[in-house]
UniProtKB/TrEMBL annotation:
This is Glutamine synthetase family protein. Belongs to the glutamine synthetase family. It comes from Reinekea marina. Pfam families: Gln-synt_C. SMART domains: Gln-synt_C. It comes from the Bacteria. InterPro entries: Gln_synt_N_sf (IPR036651), Gln_synth/guanido_kin_cat_dom (IPR014746), Gln_synth_cat_dom (IPR008146). GO terms for molecular function: ligase activity. Keywords: Ligase. Its EC number is 6.3.1.-.
Length: 452
């Protein structure tokens, strides 16, 4: 980032006194530090330092020592640099004196740090670009709004809309009334995103009480779009908190309601023309190859797309979450959907990621699968007709143990993500899995303690 960008920003915002420097960790959680205004130019020209172990934290925020980034290396600092174009104000902060910048971590002045998920995506984009195509790319984020006050049993519940006594308790997908009830929140999210140069353009009510989906504009810069998705999650949480609500990207917060996904849309273009386009897109050879590649790596990349124990609760039949290695035209029961629309808009909608997935890693999975399929001219199975849940199809893993083992066993994953990164990710996720499995649930006490 140039000095002029910093000087221009500070001259336009004389009230800014503090800047938040943000990094996305392995789990997609934003971490970082704050600096004062007079240090901003130095940080943007020379960088700053954070421990490399920031990229080896479990969901509890604890360093996973098995990763090798903690005490084994003296908890070493790593160079971090702000990302050009991400310096913006923080509109939700009272006083109007706060700004932020998204950053990334380096091994040295020019080489990305292997453990930074953003650098994993940078490498994947470089490799994908060798196919020679331009792209159309977009991100959809699903999330729940949750009342900060729990119900009489201590469980989470949907919020009560501002100025209303009505709690959203029924599923009213695409309901305009529900959007009207939460218009105060939606408008604030869109406006706050605009102030941070994040192109959020559409919000819809989803399949469960308090569940919404927000879409980012279609763009041609994959890395920029994913950076914006990471920042948009922070916008949504911060605006929700402003109205005394929580916004959660947990994959399955309610066991009896639909889970939340992270959907990625990708089209390939050559000389401005969509190469996936066809009168019947399911018969387009290039699109079928891309689909075949994604399905061939579905098992071995699922650990990135379903990163927690809770992620697998989302993968349930009849809940619009993919449970099998399937694809189809305009069908939301499959893993890979070809949405309807004009030929020029033909694209793959990748529906396998939970909303809790790290967007950088999920996008790297998408690019890896598409590239493997096209380069190796893989052949896709026939597209599904009808309800995929009612048919016999090869299933994806339904638990984190199997997903991690399949990730570790596929050499293509190490090739795309880096052997060191896969070992790091595996160490962190096995440690986290053990943490979850060492808890005894209330149901075990209720059902087993008195009788066994």
């Amino acid at each position: 980032m140039s000095k002029s960008e910093v000087k221009d920003f500070l001259s336009q915002h004389p009230d800014i006194t503090t800047i938040e420097l943000l990094l996305s960790d392995l789990n997609g959680v934003v971490r970082g530090k704050r600096i004062e205004r007079d240090l901003l130019e130095k940080v943007f020209t020379k960088g700053f330092y954070l421990p490399g172990s920031v990229m080896a934290l479990d969901s509890a925020g604890t360093t996973v020592e098995e990763s090798g980034l903690g005490m084994d290396v003296g908890d070493r600092d790593r160079l971090c640099k702000p990302i050009p174009g991400t310096l913006s104000i923080v509109p939700w902060h009272e006083g109007g004196d706060r700004a932020q910048a998204l950053c990334t971590m380096y091994k040295d002045r020019s080489t990305g740090f292997f453990a930074d998920p953003r650098q994993v995506l940078v490498n994947a984009i470089d490799r994908f670009s060798q196919l020679g195509y331009d792209v159309g790319f977009a991100v959809e984020l699903e999330f729940y709004l949750i009342d900060k006050q729990r119900d009489e049993k201590g469980n989470i519940q949907p919020p009560i809309a501002l100025g209303s006594e009505r709690r959203m308790m029924s599923s009213q997908v695409y309901s305009i009334d529900d959007l009207d009830q939460y218009d105060f929140f939606i408008r604030d999210v869109i406006e706050t995103a605009r102030q941070q140069n994040i192109p959020a353009d559409t919000v819809i009510a989803e399949y469960a009480p308090g569940q919404f989906e927000v879409n980012l504009d279609y763009g041609t810069d994959i890395l920029k779009a994913v950076d914006q998705a990471v920042l948009l999650k922070r916008v949504i949480r911060s605006v929700a908190n402003k109205y005394n609500m929580d916004a959660s990207f947990m994959a399955k917060p309610y066991i009896d309601q639909s889970g939340s996904g992270l959907h990625l849309h990708l089209s390939l273009l050559k000389d401005g023309e969509n190469v996936f386009a066809a009168e019947d897109p399911t018969q387009n050879p290039l699109l079928r190859q891309a689909i075949a590649g994604l399905l061939s790596m579905a098992d071995s990349t699922q650990a990135f797309l379903a990163p927690t124990v809770n992620s697998f609760r989302r993968l349930a039949p009849e809940n619009f979450a993919p449970t099998s290695k399937t694809w189809a035209y305009d069908n939301r029961t499959v893993a890979l959907r070809i949405p309807s629309g004009g030929q020029s808009a033909t694209r793959i909608e990748h529906r396998m990621s939970g909303a809790d997935a790290n967007p950088y890693l999920a996008t790297a999975v998408l690019l890896a699968g598409v590239t493997e399929g096209i380069q190796n001219k893989l052949e896709a199975p026939d597209p599904v007709v009808g309800n995929a849940y009612d048919q016999e199809h090869e299933q994806v893993a339904d638990n984190q143990r199997d997903a991690l083992r399949k990730m570790e066993a596929d050499p293509r994953v190490s090739d795309w993500f880096g052997k060191d990164f896969v070992e790091l990710y595996s160490a962190c996720k096995w440690s986290e899995l053990r943490m979850f499995e060492q808890q005894i649930t209330q149901m075990e006490y209720d059902l087993l303690l008195p009788y066994v």
